[in-house]
Structures are given as C-alpha cells and as structure tokens.
C-alpha cells in the first residue's frame, strides 16, 4: 500500500460504515518463515480469501515497494488523464487480448447501468521480455522501468504466498509456483484503475459489478475506500446491501486476495470471495479513486486439474489456463454466469 503521506492528502475514511475484519500479516514475518504468520495466511485464505499484508519492516522488498507504489500512484493520475483519443488507440480486445485500456462505461453494473471505471492493463510478458512489448502511449512507455521493478517485487511476494499455502496444505513448496512461472507466457497483468468521483446523488452506486477474480493471487494498493467484500456468511445475497462490508485501506499494507484458480487447484480448500467496487464512502466519494494491482494468473498452458482436496475436477479440469481465462471473461462479459464465492470453510458471518 501507499505510504502514510498519500493518506494524509485525502478525505478521511468514515468511522460509521461496516468494516470487513481481516487478518493482517507481516511480510517480514512471512518471508522469515514464521509459523504464526504462515498459519494466519492459511486461515485468511480459507475463511475470507482476503487479508492485509503489512510491507513495513521488510527492508529488502517491502520498503522499496511502498516507495514504488507512491511513484506509480502519481504516474497513474497522469496516465489516466491522457486525451481520450490517444487512449482509444490502445484499447484491449477481449478475448483476443486483455492488454491495453478499458474505457469507462463498457461494462454494466447490477442495475444494468454503465460502469464508472476505466483501467489500463500492462502485461507481465512484455515487461519480462517473454513476448514483444505491447503497444503503449509514449507517456506509459516512459514509466515501464518503474512498472517492471514494481512487478518484480510483487512477484517475490506472490512466490512467498504460494510457497506458504502449498506447505500449509501439505504440498511441495513449489506446487503452485511451478504452474505460474514468470518466465513463461501468461495472462498476468499490472493494472491501473480509476474509479470516478461520485459528487451527484445518482453517482452513489456501484462502480464495478460484483465478481471473483479468476486468476491465482491479486495484490492491490488503494488509498481511498470503495472496495467491498460480500460477507462470507452462508447464503448471503449480493442484492442485499446489508451483506456488504467495506475494506479500509491502511498505509503500508497491500490488500491480498485469492482467485478462482486457487480454488480449482485445491478442490475448494481455499476461498475466492465475491467483491465489488462501490462509490468511495463518506467525503471520499468526491475524489477520483486510483488503484494499482498485480493480478497473477497461471502460465497459459498450465492444467486446471485439481492438485489436492476432495471432489471431481469438473469440466474445467480439462482446460488449459488460457482456455479457463477466456471462458471466465466471456461469461462475465455476457452476464450469463451466476457470481458466487467459491471454496473455503463453511461459516457464519466473519469474525476474527
């Protein structure tokens, strides 16, 4: 997450909204092999599929990543302020390519209104040299070394989480990492998101429809609020506004969540939880909300067969990771797939 300085430049997060209780795990403890930190990661990934990762106190990766996040938030405001006609030259083209700009209003919310966000996806493959670089505006190209460094540090964190989860589940430490090597083509992206301010009453609504991520692990940096998690209590309905809990961003902490691929591989032992982007809470809604994320996905040819846990693979077990991603993306775009949290431990409302 960004440094405390950026948090001082925005309206305060309100104290009168329901907050999702989340485990906070120290990156330094996790990287040192601390048993309590490892167990906390497993519990978080079974109960909610989300946790906070505190980068502070880790001089090798965490400190540098906080500095890079600050710089990329500044870059993000410049990039997303490029003229619309310039951004339109670099649009994504799903399912052919997930890379490039996604314009505001291209998708729908649960009320069938246009969404209120835009993003830019920069592929890991181009940043790593696995494939030729994707076409990007000159301004974005000037920041590519910074994006690449941020990605490299994020890969280190993702590797630590993968190894921790594998070990806690009784698998070889490299089980999950071997299916998502950074040197092979994949759908992994660095994503900049701008969700627009909500000054008018009609803007006080969902910006990005509820969904689960369909990759493996997402690292998210926010300063403003807006992310909501569906309470994991059984049978909670996304249409019930009382079922949604706000995530309160914290200086120096990343928000980490699991995607559907980890649920598929573990036969439902781990959890991918429904979440959405709402208008920012309280006075924060008057400010554009920027986010920075790394969305890790398996390498394209990885098998989606179950690696551990009970039950059948289902029809998705015969797919490659790329086939899986295209299937998920197109179903989400068409709105013909019921969105629900997957995997994890049966539970009532979350209490930590």
Distinct helical segment count: 10
**Structural class, from secondary structure content?**
alpha+beta
Give the spatial strand order of the biggest sheet: 1-2-10-7-13-5-4-3
Q: β content, as a range?
A: 15-25%
GO molecular function: metal ion binding; oxidoreductase activity
Protein name: Fe2OG dioxygenase domain-containing protein
Domain Fe2OG dioxygenase: 188-298
Family: Belongs to the iron/ascorbate-dependent oxidoreductase family.
Structural commentary:
It is a single chain. The chain has 352 residues and is of the alpha+beta class. The protein has 10 helices and 14 strands. It has an 8-stranded mixed sheet with strand order 1-2-10-7-13-5-4-3. Strands 6-12-8-9 form a 4-stranded antiparallel sheet, with no helix packed on it. Helix 3 crosses helix 8 and helix 4 (62-80) packs across helix 8 (144-168). The chain is globular and about 50 Å long. Residues 348-352 have low confidence and may be disordered.
